[in-house]
Amino acid sequence: MTRPGSFALAIAASLLWILPALPAQAASLNATEKKIAAVVDRGVPASLALLERTVNVNSGTMNFAGVAEVGRLFGAELERLGFEAHWIDGVEFGRSGHLIAERRGRGARLQVLLIGHLDTVFEADSPFQRFTRIDDSTAAGPGIIDMKGGVVVLLLALSALADAGRLDRLDVTVVLTGDEESVGYPLEAARRHLKAAAPLADLAIGFEDGDGDPKTAVIARRGSSNWTLRAAGRAAHSSQIFRPDLGSGAVFEAARFLSAIHDSLRGEPYLTFNPGLILGGTTLGYSAAEGRGTAFGKSNVIAESTVVAGDLRALTFEQRERAKAAMWRILERHHPGTDARLEFEDRYPPWRPARATGSCLPNSTARAATWALVRLPPSIRRSPGPPMSRSPPECWTECSTVSA
After folding, report:
1. Which string of DSSP letters, residue by residue, matches 296-358?
2. How wide is the angle at C-alpha 395 spanned by C-alphas 322 and 214, nearest 5°?
3. DSSP codes, 257-300
């Protein structure tokens, strides 16, 4: 965990940079920025205490009470800053709910949407439950990065702007969803309030950590789809496997598919696919909603069933559909005596880089003390290959990073 102060200062400074009343190319901190920096420094201890309190409340997506309690804690902080906060009950989409908070400035010239989430991937039965300080600048705990720490940064940045007398220049809407890690359904109901807020905003900032560096902003995001493979074989004694009338069994069929997509699709820029769960044997019990299951089988019995659950991430719709088509073609080449079905579930869409998004970011000459050049980390620089149907904006590899 990096201290929240540097992130909060970068966010507050970026909002100041956008406000036309302030100079965009100052080489050093002006009086307003110095005041913001001082407020951020003073606020770090209280922010870390808030982070510890919220991290110690389990808010795994399916722990509805825990998600609501984290929403209550963050809602109280927003109300202290003059926001009107209210809870959206998630019964309609099978989740805990969302926190929405709004604050209207006086004579505001910019509509800002700030986005985060309350839930984590660590459910109530996870062994990873508590905030632990490792040293004077590092801590570990469920949701510190993803993303209770991000919400704490959001609050610290807003507090700094308020103390500097600049928050009234903005109309701010904060949307903290309670189902980011496992979205509720129907999707239209789960994302209704976020979609309603988006068209009204001149600027939207998500506070989930990118690569851990406050000098890096994310201006593109890969879409996410889930896929499930269900392979079937013919149960028989293992001494008879590979016989023409019995075939190779369900586990070998699933292994064939996984090996083939690994060898065929691996390496395409920005495309990833991951089998995160596999069960095989004679009988299976699998719950996609809970991400867990059971299997019964014997080493001397040919596996009758196998299920594999995974995800697929792509930067564009075209890339996603090409990957799906390739997986379908691979699926059709069954081992003898086996069959398999493949199902896809598109979760959220790709958000490709756009020139307009990059133009919102300060460049290398803008307030170097508070927001340095935003850059694409070398580990994910665009490599040769055709991941998109057309080239990305020229500024993309100079000023952005791709998330998820």
Report:
1. E--TTB---EEEEEEEEEESSHHHHHHHHHHHHHHHTSPPTT-EEEEEEEEEE--B---HHHH
2. 100
3. HHHHHHHHHTT-TT-EEEEEEEEEESEEEEETTTTEEEEE--TT
* pLDDT > 90 fraction of the chain, expressed in percent and rounded: 63
Cα(292)–Cα(305) distance, integer angstroms: 16
Looking up tokens 């149907």 gives: 389
d(CA 216, CA 401): 7
Which is nearest to 71 in space by CA: 39, 24, 3, 117?
117
What's the CA gap between 159 and 4, in Å, rounded?
13
Instruction: Give per-residue pLDDT as tens, 172-198.
Output: 999 999 999 999 999 899 999 999 999
Distance, CA of 198 to CA of 172 (rounded, Å)? 12
381 — pLDDT class (breaks 50, 70, 90): very low
DSSP letter assigned to residue 75:
H
Topology at the third CATH level for domain 4-209: Aminopeptidase (3.40.630)
Six-digit token string for 113:
């949407």
Does residue 166 have a pLDDT over 90?
no
SS3 99: strand
CATH code 3.30.70.360 region(s) in the chain = 223-348
Confirm if 83 and 102 have CB atoms less than 8 A apart: yes
- Residue 386: Cβ within 10 Å count: 12
The CATH code of the domain at 223-348 is 3.30.70.360
- Give the pLDDT confidence score for residue 389 in this predicted structure: 30
